[in-house]
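COURSE: Structural Biology Practicum
ASSIGNMENT: Worksheet 4, Part C
STUDENT ID: 0417
INSTRUCTIONS: Below are two proteins. For each, the amino acid sequence is given first, followed by its structure token string. Answer the questions at the end about the second protein only.

PROTEIN I
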Amino acid sequence: MLSVAAFGVADLSESIAYAEQALRGLGKPPPESRLGALRAVLGASGRRVVGLAVPQRWRPVLSREASEVVLEASLAWNQLSTLYFFAGDPTRTLAAILRGLAAAERCGADAATVQSYANLGFVFGTARAGTVARHYFGQAQRVARRRGDTRGRALALYLEAMHCVGLARWQETRALGIEAAELFESISDAHEAEISRTIAAHGFYYAGDVVGADEQIEHVRRMASRRSNAQHVGWAKFMSARSLLARGEAAQAFALASAAKDLIEHLPDTLSNVMLDGTLARAALHCGNTAVATAACRRLTGRLNRGEWPATGQCVDGVAAAAEVLFWLRQAGGDVTPELRLAMQTLRRFALLFPIAAPAFHRARARLSAAAGHEAAAQRAWQRSLAIATRLHMPLEQALVHLDQASLARSAERRTSALAEARAVLRPLGCELFVELNAGGRPRDPAVG
């Protein structure tokens, strides 16, 4: 399928166009609008409920020719569900998943059914319907194992790993992501192996294992470079930049994130661009380049304002970074209040869906309260952020609480105490320089745009 080939070289717009064209050619046109997608979701859901009540023996048997058409439609819908997801369109994503599953079950295509089940597991997991999510992930694994479908098993594993990122289940994220990558590598599917290792890297990074994250990202960089996949090379660059920031190496981080921007900015890939722009904004701020920091935040919030919704836990860091950078830009006199408000609203929405977002959200609330002079409210929010980050084993988030407290402290004594607490968290991680990088907090360049 041309759509798969285009996706393999990171051309999402072409990939979407080819998949939609294939469906039209099969007489199964995709919805043209979000309202149409919502109608498709409701219709497919209703038909699924009715269909489950109909015994298998009463269902019509397709001819060979009709079965081939339905199978092609199922494959195209499954491809589109992935593309719509990366484009930040959850309604179309769900519509495509449901139509793909219906088609796969109708023609008895196990491979397509596995992908649909795994996709549904991820969607229901995002909706915090954990029991339903586990059911569909389990169904995907059972069908894949029954038919010896290595690719299907690996796909279900990495989607479950993505689900675990949002839940801050780091050990599962790492284990599932690496197992998926190894399965994909065993069948020479480098593209999906790179995605799987990227997911595993989040499981290392958020748990404070920056070295482990970098090992996974180096795998991605090498494989993607061999395939000339600009999107995945860009992922490796901005995720390496994120690690460098954790080590306190802002200049190198800024250079890598800027290089990643050149590779990714033009792609219709909401998830990648949100993660990239958050990292770039944070690196630029620490290097004193507030013009670049402001532009990166405005690109990110512009996507949010256009309704692009990066519905995955690994995007939390990008949105949280934007909220942080925009706060300091506003403190320095920048005209960024609308962007800051939107970043906060998005972070709140993330916190309702993903436990991973809660520490960053409460920390952002604390900054705003402290800046407004509401010291007691700020301290309550910081303590809540710290308690959640500790419970979720997110040491970098714990350190950021202390660093925010130091930057906004009203006394030298409190500032010194907060910096010492941050060092105590970061020293075992090999990230003590992160303290020096973040201690000032505020942008040094007065030319805030």
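PROTEIN II
(use this one for the questions)
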Amino acid sequence: MEKGVSILIGNGFNRLLANLISLDSISERLSEIAVLYNRFSELFEEIRNEYSLRSEEEAIELFYNALAIVNLVVNNSLTPRESWKVCLDEIKQELDREVMDRIYSVIDEFVSDETTGFYGNLRKELKVYGYFIDREPIKQNKEKLFIFTTNYDGCVDIFFRFNDEDGFQFNDLFNRRSCPEYTEEYVCFDDSETPKPPLLFHLHGSYKFFIKQQGFRYVTIKLSNYSSLNYRNLIPVIIYNAPNMKQELIRKFEVLSTYFGFFKKNLKENTKRLIIIGQSLLSDPHILDAISRSYSNLDEVVIMDIDDQLEMVKNRIYERVIQRSKGNDVLDKFRLINTRKIKNIPEFYDTLEKLIVE
């Protein structure tokens, strides 16, 4: 298989679009979405302080352990004593009120961008310049295109969305045929086949991903209709901002474990050029480690970011590669592109297209 191009996208991508799009209402919302994830950090920082924990990681671990125990007992009626069940019901209500409500309130904002038409307006604004994915050179190279994002929102999906007329769609391993029963409300995760490009994987989850109990089994779903299914009764598939726990949390979710496993394998075996857009790698040591382990197999690492962020990202990768080299010489394979010099959407299209097809 001929090697292709992998693109790793972080929140800086939304900030870049915000700077390039002229319509103020869209630009302002893109900037807001780029920092929305901070609300999760604020929540777990409050839990850390309330319970005198040492770190945000401990707060998240406490939350997941409590949630797992309560769901296991309450949902499966495994408690032999009624008094225990009453106690656990109260704990569950407290979790729902104090933690889950706050988590869902952030997810509500992501969902509202879809249900109130923001993503539709973003798509229309991009259509003015033609859809990036409809460019002929991109179409010719789409079978060698791998896109990974750590963002929870849908802006990356809109930017790389297929043209409805030709039916082209990125593969995310969700489909309707894998669901236990037919429904228009969601599609189900299915990793029974080897992922084939073009791919678009949300490495840290998405506002659309949830765990749903279906009889005696749990299925990972991606919502497609928010009108009739109450997602507040489902478990969100999202990795919160705890750097030292992210890889452990990824293992808890089948879809994210599959995504990250493919990301690592793809960097080693199928990628000639890695393009990093707006991803500082500061709080993602698992991704930094995956890149450093695959560095020798890459022809080039392109970093697209602003000003001093460029050297910071390069140095984080380079230093990790040197640590792994055990004294051997390390080639400088970096190309740095300052996105402040990109003035409009067509210029961004041209820059990204060249990196994908050259």
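ANSWER KEY EXCERPT:
Q1: DSSP finds 13 helices and eleven strands in the chain.
Q2: The longest strand covers residues 205-214.
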